[in-house]
């Protein structure tokens, strides 16, 4: 009886020394606030849909083939990150690094093409100051691009972690899982952007 009591006390003490992490729950909470942010930006864009102020429209300037390439790159990066997570659970740090590098390059290429699109739109007279439509467009798509940039920085930090700690612990895997949630969330937001902003403006 005394032995069982001692074991229970030791288990309780160990639980107090190593409390369960609430980082994943906290990150889900953050994603919910980000959902509210993007919902507000989508609502703003929808309310200013036809406010062109006599300037160019989305139908005039949007190039769907280029945007489709951007979409394909981002969706593919979500798949490659999934491969990185599968290898992380199997403790294959070398494979994790390889897939993270591929994901990073795909995300960086997406961001490069998006910035090039912005510069082309501005050169054609569709700057954020031109009309309410373009102001809301740049606010929405630019905010998504900023999130992708932050995700790339986070990914670079995680690659350094994996490089320095070949044996992935629970802490590193949890961080990768949170980054995966963030990256997949950006994919979902971009699908909405592609559907409602680009396709909705052209069709």
Automatic annotation (TrEMBL):
Superkingdom, taxonomy of origin: Bacteria
Pfam families: COX3
Assigned keywords, A-Z: Cell membrane, Electron transport, Membrane, Oxidoreductase, Transmembrane, Transmembrane helix, Transport
Keyword Transport appears in the UniProt entry: yes
Entry keyword Electron transport: yes
Region annotated Disordered, chain positions: 1-20
Membrane topology annotation: Multi-pass membrane protein
Comp. bias intervals (Polar residues): 1-10
Localization, UniProt: Cell membrane
Main localisation: membrane
SUPFAM superfamilies given in the database record: Cytochrome c oxidase subunit III-like
Residues of the Heme-copper oxidase subunit III family profile domain: 1-202
UniProt xrefs under InterPro entries: Cyt_c/ubiquinol_Oxase_su3 (IPR024791), Cyt_c_oxidase-like_su3 (IPR000298), Cyt_c_oxidase_su3-like_sf (IPR035973), Cyt_c_oxidase_su3_a-hlx (IPR013833), Cyt_c_ubiqinol_oxidase_su3 (IPR014206), Ubiquinol_oxase_su3_dom (IPR033946)
Bilayer-spanning residue ranges: 27-49, 69-89, 96-113, 133-164, 176-199
Record's function text: Cytochrome bo(3) ubiquinol terminal oxidase is the component of the aerobic respiratory chain of E.coli that predominates when cells are grown at high aeration. Has proton pump activity across the membrane in addition to electron transfer, pumping 2 protons/electron.
Subunit structure: Heterooctamer of two A chains, two B chains, two C chains and two D chains.
PANTHER family: CYTOCHROME BO(3) UBIQUINOL OXIDASE SUBUNIT 3, CYTOCHROME C OXIDASE SUBUNIT III
Record family assignment: Belongs to the cytochrome c oxidase subunit 3 family.
Name this polypeptide is given: Cytochrome bo(3) ubiquinol oxidase subunit 3
Lineage of the organism: Bacteria, Pseudomonadati, Pseudomonadota, Betaproteobacteria, Burkholderiales
Gene: cyoC
């Amino acid at each position: 009886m005394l032995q069982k009591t001692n074991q229970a006390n030791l288990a309780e003490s160990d639980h107090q020394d190593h409390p369960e992490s609430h980082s994943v729950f906290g990150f889900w909470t953050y994603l919910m606030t980000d959902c509210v942010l993007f919902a507000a930006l989508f609502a703003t864009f929808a309310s200013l849909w036809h406010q062109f102020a006599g300037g160019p429209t989305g139908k005039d300037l949007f190039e769907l083939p280029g945007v489709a390439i951007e979409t394909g790159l981002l969706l593919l990066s979500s798949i490659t990150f999934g491969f990185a997570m599968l290898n992380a659970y199997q403790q294959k740090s070398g494979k994790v690094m390889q897939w993270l590098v591929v994901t990073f390059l795909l995300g960086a290429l997406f961001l490069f093409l998006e910035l090039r699109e912005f510069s082309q739109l501005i050169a054609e007279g569709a700057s954020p100051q031109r009309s309410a439509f373009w102001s809301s467009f740049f606010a929405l798509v630019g905010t998504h691009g900023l999130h992708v940039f932050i995700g790339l920085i986070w990914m670079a930090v995680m690659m350094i972690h994996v490089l320095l700690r070949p044996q992935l612990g629970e802490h590193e895997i949890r961080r990768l899982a949170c980054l995966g949630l963030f990256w997949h969330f950006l994919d979902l937001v971009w699908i909405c952007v592609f559907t409602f902003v680009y396709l909705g403006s052209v069709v």
